[in-house]
Design brief:
The chain is α/β, with parallel strands linked by helices. It has one domain: Alpha-Beta Barrel (TIM Barrel). The chain has 16 helices and twelve strands. The chain has helices at about 5-15, 15-25, 45-55, 60-65, 75-80, 130-140, 150-155, 170-185, 200-205, 215, 245-255, 270-275, 300-310, 325-330, 340-350, 355-375, and strands at about 85, 100-105, 105-110, 115, 145, 160-165, 190, 260-265, 280-285, 315-320, 335-340, 385-390. Strands 4-11-10-9-8-7-6-5 form an eight-stranded parallel β-sheet. Strands 1-12 form a two-stranded antiparallel ribbon. It has a two-stranded antiparallel ribbon with strand order 2-3. Helix 3 packs across helix 15 (about 340-350) and helix 8 packs across helix 11. It is globular and about 65 Å long.
């Protein structure tokens, strides 16, 4: 490369999005965060809903939701993985009618999009699980949550609710929990399996976050903070369910006759064990990059896990999904459906329930369009021939 060519290359690189990312805090999919109109039709994608929510939320709330663990390697990896997978669309196919519906655990859904269990919703607003549940019900979307949804069901809201648990300490407690949530209207029990201890989250530590705020919310402007109940500290040692074993699946299933799903599977060996121990489905998940840093991206882990399961049970996936095309890539690599976690919370932080609904509708529309432009009239035509993976080596 001569001097002139080198100068041209450097001039191009300085103006590229990658350079802008470092120089100006460039956010993918957002041209100018300050210019996003503050109305429901203002944000044009999920990235802009996040930017708008960031403008409105308390810094503690935004960092809790947006942040990952420690150096956030896994958080970034989840999103970057989609940059290494490319679609290979087929053409000259009749896609005048496109059907995005799927069937999961005997339930027919109009799209393969579920709302993942997420902590900290009350940092955005009080009774946030109920607000998100209302949005899910209005859009025929499954909501997975630890609580809040049962109140809506009791009020007659047609919510398709999967309960979420981080486990029980004994068989007796597990059976009691299972019967209780079924009585409240849960259709599936989801076990989040990687939450043995509280993880080490630098953003929360810097903010002197109080984990007690997850129930009460962050202090309002001018309001004194309550005495801290569980202040965040570097490498704090707080057990959640460290005694969790594969027996837990049988504990729940021995009490009730609804499916049990194991979430946060990342190793093919664990996928095989989940099948052997009676799980009805699994979710490939690294907890959104919020538990152990340095874990591989879920999209990268997905194909080997799908192969290990061998079609015996459905494989779902979460992590880094921000576009309809991301959903198509996940399904192409073998996911039956996907879960969105942060995206609904950006809608919640920007506009409350209407924001959550808009995010769901936007992702459904983007997925349907991506499906059609890839030459698929329904999800049964999606397979690995639709994608190519490009690996980067140091």
């Amino acid at each position: 490369m001569n001097r002139r060519d080198a100068f041209r290359y450097l001039s191009w690189a300085a103006a590229s999005p990658l350079a802008l990312s470092a120089q100006q805090g460039f956010q993918e999919g957002v041209e100018d965060p300050a210019a996003i109109p503050d109305n429901l039709d203002g944000p044009v994608n999920v990235h802009e809903f996040e930017a708008l929510a960031k403008r409105k939320l308390h810094k503690m709330a935004y960092d809790f939701i947006a942040g990952g663990v420690e150096d956030e390697k896994t958080l970034r990896a989840n999103i970057e993985a989609y940059h290494r997978v490319f679609l290979v669309p087929r053409v000259m196919r009749d896609v005048s009618q496109v059907d995005t519906s799927v069937e999961i655990l005997g339930q027919k859904l109009d799209s393969p999009i579920l709302i993942a269990p997420t902590g900290g919703k009350n940092l955005v607003m009080p009774n946030a699980d109920e607000v998100v549940g209302q949005a899910a019900a209005a859009n025929n979307t499954i909501m997975i949550s630890a609580g809040g949804a049962d109140k809506l069901i009791g009020e007659g809201v047609a919510l398709n609710w999967w309960t979420n648990t981080t486990g029980s300490a004994s068989k007796t407690q597990a059976q009691s929990y299972a019967r209780r949530v079924v009585d409240r209207g849960a259709k599936v029990i989801t076990i989040t399996a990687d939450n043995e201890y509280q993880s080490n989250r630098d953003r929360n530590n810097r903010n002197r976050f109080d984990y007690g705020m997850m129930g009460t919310g962050v202090p309002k402007p001018g309001q004194p903070a309550a005495p801290p109940r569980m202040p965040a500290k570097p490498a704090m040692w707080i057990p959640h369910t460290p005694q969790m074993t594969w027996e837990m699946i049988e504990w729940y299933k021995s009490a009730v006759k609804i499916p049990v799903v194991v979430k946060c599977i990342m190793a093919p060996e664990d996928a095989e064990l989940a099948v052997q121990r009676g799980a009805d489905a699994i979710v490939v998940s690294n907890h959104g990059g919020r538990q152990l840093d340095g874990v591989m991206a879920t999209l990268d882990a997905l194909p080997d896990i799908v192969d290990a399961v061998g079609g015996k049970i459905p494989v779902l996936m979460d992590g880094g999904i921000r576009r309809g095309g991301d959903i198509l890539k996940a399904l192409s690599l073998g996911a039956k459906a996907i879960l969105i976690g942060r995206a609904p919370l950006w809608g919640l932080g920007a506009f409350g329930q209407p924001g959550v609904e808009r995010v769901i509708q936007m992702l459904k529309a983007e997925f349907k369009l991506a499906l059609a432009l890839a030459g698929c009239k329904d999800v049964t035509e999606v397979n690995r021939r639709l994608v190519r993976r490009q690996y980067k080596f140091a």
